[in-house]
Design a protein that fits this description.
By secondary structure, the protein is an alpha+beta fold. The protein contains 14 helices and 14 strands.
């Protein structure tokens, strides 16, 4: 008896599902447009969250371009959110080589490694009849660049303080330069041509790969004194990297660096800092702020779209009730109960919202990962937001489908059969 009752119960729900699908299929265009409305709302939030999650994961792993205990001193902020900040910073004086060198000497007195750097991007390097692609970064720096930027020497030697002092024409090249110019020979003591003159190769860096779509191996380091001789102009600004002993001493080192930099810049006690000092933590905090704004915007757009799609579901179901009044009367005359009619119309509303949710999730995940791929981030599926979308769309289907379902369930059989 129990199994037969369960079977009849299963058949009843199967019949309800067939009726619901048949009704939606009979109005395919109307149903498709309703599903599209739900999909757009889900797509907006899942796409944004997928992209943000993937990019944030990439940033967390890629910020090791600098050490965790490294500070960066630049003229302007690395990340600017406020347009007003950009206007204020444009009048800051550039960090000239004398100021940068004075800061290094001051930090040397405390035994704190400091790297100075200036960069010419998108350059070529030549050797005999071979040349690199035009995306090599020529970096004028000193002996501490490898330490503060997490590079390691593969073979040869690093720049030395003597190279800097005597402004020697020497260079340490990255793996991309090595493979392009010296595929089958030892590059050490070979002369290459790059912007500004000829340089002798003294060392090769270990491979780093790409970060945010930029090759970390397309690099050539030269003494910053030689860079200033040949490549410097008055519109440039030096960048400075300072390595604290540990993450625990980072704050103390930052305070020290700010004080020493203010002296090097000739600032009075009442003057504001006219330079920016940042760390990995600060960059991460800036990205988190941007991500929070983008997430809020995505949720707002998604919420509006989902409410509009919910209203669309209600409208479609109300029209469906009106069009199927005689059908409802026939079903009730044949013994259908209120809960059967209620279940059928609720099932139709939930089906519309859930199909829209699935379509939106798929489109959101695909689009979000395409965007994330531009940042060389790994593919990610935001399960939390996917399941949240399914749950929210279920509530929308039930909430906005309840009124039409109740109206259909409360129709009188005799009045329904008389309906034209």
């Amino acid at each position: 008896m129990t199994s037969q009752a369960g079977k009849r119960k299963g058949l009843r729900w199967q019949d309800l599902l067939e009726l619901a699908l048949g009704s939606l299929g009979a109005n395919a265009l109307r149903s498709s447009l309703t599903i599209l409305g739900v999909a757009i709302g889900v797509f907006s939030v899942v796409g944004v969250m997928t992209a943000l999650s993937a990019v944030q994961q990439s940033i967390d792993s890629s910020l090791n371009v600098f050490g965790a205990n490294v500070l960066q001193i630049t003229r302007n902020p690395s990340v600017e959110i406020s347009l007003g900040g950009r206007n204020r910073n444009r009048w800051r004086p550039r960090i000239n080589p004398d100021q940068a060198q004075e800061l290094k000497e001051r930090m040397d007195e405390f035994g704190i490694p400091t790297a100075l750097s200036a960069t010419d991007p998108n350059e070529r390097i030549r050797y005999d009849d071979r040349k690199t692609s035009p995306r090599i970064r020529i970096v004028g720096t000193n002996e501490n660049y490898l330490l503060t930027n997490n590079y390691e020497l593969d073979f040869g030697r690093n720049l030395t303080a003597t190279d800097i002092e005597f402004s020697r024409s020497v260079t340490v090249i990255g793996r991309e330069v090595l493979e392009a110019l010296f595929p089958h020979e030892n590059p050490l003591e070979k002369d290459v041509e790059m912007k500004g003159g000829r340089y002798t190769v003294i060392g090769v860096l270990k491979e780093r790969g790409d970060i945010f779509g930029e090759s970390m191996d397309g690099i050539a380091l030269i003494p910053h004194t030689k860079f200033i001789e040949r490549n410097w102009h008055r519109w440039r600004s030096m960048e400075i990297s300072i390595q604290a002993d540990s993450v625990e001493t980072l704050k103390a080192t930052e305070d020290l660096a700010i004080g020493q930099m203010r002296q090097a810049r000739g600032l009075e006690p009442e003057d504001q800092n006219n330079f920016e000092i940042t760390s990995n933590q600060a960059l991460q905090a800036a990205f988190d702020e941007i991500a929070a704004i983008a997430s809020l915007a995505g949720l707002l757009v998604s919420g509006i779209a989902l409410v509009c799609s919910g209203i669309g579901i209600m409208n479609v179901m109300l029209v469906s009730v009106s069009e199927r009044t005689r059908e409802i009367g026939v079903r009730k005359a044949l013994g259908a109960r209120k809960r059967n009619v209620l279940s059928q119309f609720l099932l139709e509303a939930v089906f519309l919202s859930e199909v829209g949710a699935i379509l939106g999730i798929v489109l959101g995940v695909v689009t979000g990962n395409v965007i994330a791929n531009l940042f060389d981030a790994q593919m990610i599926i935001p399960w939390f937001w996917a399941w949240t979308a399914v749950g929210v769309c279920s509530l929308i289907g039930i909430g906005f489908g309840l009124l039409p379902a109740v109206r259909a369930a409360n129709l009188h059989p005799v009045d329904s059969l008389r309906h034209d």
